[in-house]
């Protein structure tokens, strides 16, 4: 399984013949200025919630690729009204089997609204099973106790967790989340993009090693194999 980081909380996951793109926020992100959005053509786009820093490039990518949008009902309806043809609405706790594997929506402790301030459903995370792997994409969230249930029920091999603080949990809470979910490999996200969420990467990785956690912080544009 290959994972390419496009900055902030945006990742392209290649599993078998399919590509899954999470939370595309690229063109407004100064740290991702070298990424060519026009070249990104996934099979599926998964959106965790409606904030602009998670879906700024979603409409363009969905239309240029013909990808299927997966997310909360309100998100898929909003994009459907903007001319996105292929959507799959879901809601918290729901699971669906796709041609690449399955997606289950999990809770996330966060707000969610569209750019005009209207209701965008509840914020979500995802448990994805694909190509013999299971992983957890937490979305924007605080630490919460029911992450233990995600670990007990689905036993992910690795997790994407926010670590930037201020708008989400910080790196220390993410280490607790990793223990709750039962993973020793974490891909950090939602950090460094804005002044509010700048982190000391070396320090947080050293702290993770103390806890027996491998915290991966790939460079923007870098592809890693998991």
Summed up:
Residues 7-190 form the Metallo-beta-lactamase domain. The chain is of the alpha/beta class and 226 residues long.
Structure in words:
The chain is α/β, with parallel strands linked by helices and 226 residues long. The protein has a single domain, classed as Metallo-beta-lactamase, Chain A. The protein is 22% helix and 28% strand. The strands form two sheets. A seven-stranded mixed beta sheet has the order 6-5-4-3-2-1-14, with helices on one face. Strands 7-8-9-10-11-12-13 form a seven-stranded mixed beta sheet. It is built from six helices and 14 strands. GO terms for molecular function: hydrolase activity. It comes from Catalinimonas alkaloidigena. This is UPF0173 metal-dependent hydrolase SAMN05421823_101485. Keywords: Hydrolase.
Summary tags:
Metallo-beta-lactamase, Chain A; 226 residues; hydrolase; 28% strand; seven-stranded mixed β-sheet; RibonucZ/Hydroxyglut_hydro; hydrolase activity; UPF0173_UPF0282_UlaG_hydrolase; alpha/beta
Write down the CATH topology. Metallo-beta-lactamase, Chain A
Give the biggest beta sheet: 7 strands, mixed
Number of strands: 14
State the helical fraction.
10-25%
The best one-word shape is globular
| SSE ordering | EEEEHHEHEEEEEHEHEHEE
Radius of gyration: 16 Å
Q: Could you say what the CATH architecture is?
A: 4-Layer Sandwich
The total tally of domains equals 1
Structural class: alpha/beta
Give the DSSP E fraction (strand runs of 2 or more residues): 25-35%
Output the CATH class name.
Alpha Beta
Mean pLDDT metric:
97
Low-confidence stretches: none
GO molecular function: hydrolase activity
Pfam families: Lactamase_B_2 (PF12706)
Domain Metallo-beta-lactamase: 7-190
Protein name: UPF0173 metal-dependent hydrolase SAMN05421823_101485
